[in-house]
Predict the 3D structure of the following.
Amino acid sequence: MRPNSTKRTAAIVLVLLVLVIGVFGYISSRKAPPVTEPIVKADTGPKHAVIGQSVNGHSIDTYTYGHGSTTLIFVGGIHGGYEWNSVFLAYRFMDYLTANPDIIPQNISVTVIPSVNPDGVYMVTGKEGRFAVGDVSTSSKVLAKARFNANNIDLNRNFDCKWQPKSTWQSKVVSAGTKAFSEPEASALRDYILPTHPAAVVFWHSQSNGVYASQCKDGILPGTLGIMEAYSKASLYPAIKTFDAYATTGAADDWLAAENIPAITVELKTHETIEWDRNLAGVKALFGYFSEKRI
């Protein structure tokens, strides 16, 4: 290679080296953009859990809203498809809580169990879980049968308060199971509620048009009267201390009285409507009642 050619090559390499160093220095001198964490939106939906299964294998679900230490539980559908509107009311309530999470006081958490008897609901809707009003069978025979679980047991006679193997519904004799909590639906509710030990439990039923206090062998708990009056006053359902239309045994709300947990049964006026405004007013009254008690 000629000397001049070697010099020219060396000069080109030197120029390129200077350019690379200059560009690298310029890039390094620029301030790097700040590293930011990805934006994660808070989960505003409910916490969902499956607490058991029905005789036919349908899930029994809970949905919990809020984070307070005072727990209120709302239960629909213990009488399945016969009282389908109590289940529909529970789903409507869940929609409302999802859309209005700030309605729940900070010291309260709310758990909704839409249906304790999903087999009975499935019998009249053909669907597991959420359904539309148009899905409900209007056959009186189907509706009456759908009050019971798949073992033909009246679940609201299967709890441990004055339990007997045979009980009554209106003028009919109904089976209450082989023993208290013989049915998987009743035992699932028991096994969820007892460890949770809520401040109060509200059962939605139809169609006796009233708010009923629970009681067992030791009578009505003082706290039960307070929540009964609060819900009644706001919703305009009559407050009724004792259900005396006919004798009942093994009722879920009465069992809770034996466990020292205040419980009320809210009976809608009909089997066809959810009477939303009245029940929302009652729920808000309970929120206020337990928020004030905390203060």
Remarks:
- The helical segments are 3-29, 84-99, 118-125, 140-145, 184-196, 222-235, 252-258, 276-294.
- Confidence is low (pLDDT under 50) at residues 9-42.
- Residues 47-294 form a domain with the Aminopeptidase fold (CATH 3.40.630.10).
- Residues 94 and 112 are 7 Å apart (CA to CA).
